[in-house]
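The data layer described in this paper is built around a simple, fixed record for each protein. Because each token names a local backbone shape, the row as a whole describes the fold. We quote a single record here, exactly as it is kept in our systems:

***
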Amino acid sequence: MQFLILSILLLAFLNPAFAQISLSWETQDSGLEASLRGASVLNANIAWISGSNGKFAYTHDGGKTWHPMTVPGADSLDFRDVHVFDEKTAYLMSAGTGDKTRIYKTADGGKNWQLQLTNPFPEGFFSSMGFWDKDNGIVFSDPVDGKLVIFTTDDGGVNWQQIPPEVIPAAIDGEYAFAASGTCLITTGKSNVWIATGGAAARVFSSSDRGKSWQVTPTPMIAGEASTGIFSLAFLDEKSGVMVGGNYQHPDSIAANIAFTEDGGISWHLPEKNLAMPYRSCVGYLPYKDSIILLAVGRSGYGFSTDLGKSWQQFDREGYYTFDFSNDGHCWAAGANGRVAKLIISE
């Protein structure tokens, strides 16, 4: 375990509550060599990560010890999303074409796994999943026959039901999602869900009734090429949200890579002043005491904002693909070659 030679002093004038506070990454040994795209944090002690070659790992002691494992029979799968609910219960979602895209669940802390759902469409490709609680969840696939494929469960994944395609707005030809960080689908409250897309169009599909009905909203985010679009969504509450993305083939490009909503995603707007935001694959509102740190990561580095995104401090070229945090602000990030790190906030 070692501290990266990286500790950024947050500027006090941005928010007096952040005076003399610094951020640093504490790198930890995950025991994995996989490309890690999934992260789920329960509390100060328990976190899970997931990635390629059927790999996942968990810690129950705040990252002092990670337990690397492989889901039996799944070593060809790429686990792009993970959700943990307690010491025993977790879900894994793999992303891949056809039957390579699946959902597994464990009820004994990863010793045994039950295959719950296999994508039934040869051209389908799961991108992200989310849960309102331990029993009620949702997962979606890239479009099949011009519509996103969406499944929900209300019994802890024993059964997954497909949402009727006729209630889902049509996709634009060449529109799809990015399974880059497990955060292109976000759930909040008891019934809200948002899905972000890219490629030919950067749009947001949303539902306020757990997927029974849907609407779609255009956004000003960069789009039009296969490598462009929205990669991650986050909401501070039911009204205030942020999206990040860009062009992963040109990660230093800063054109239209971040947008905001103040009306629950009915409309999205670029920041009033041009922010030098390069490509980012994951964003989130990190609680810290009585304040919020808006954090965004990508393979080319990461940055933060202490004023809800009006201004940003961009730093460090050593990037991560994804991160997650607990309700009380304990945060881990994960990335290439099994890299995992815990966020340290000090005064």
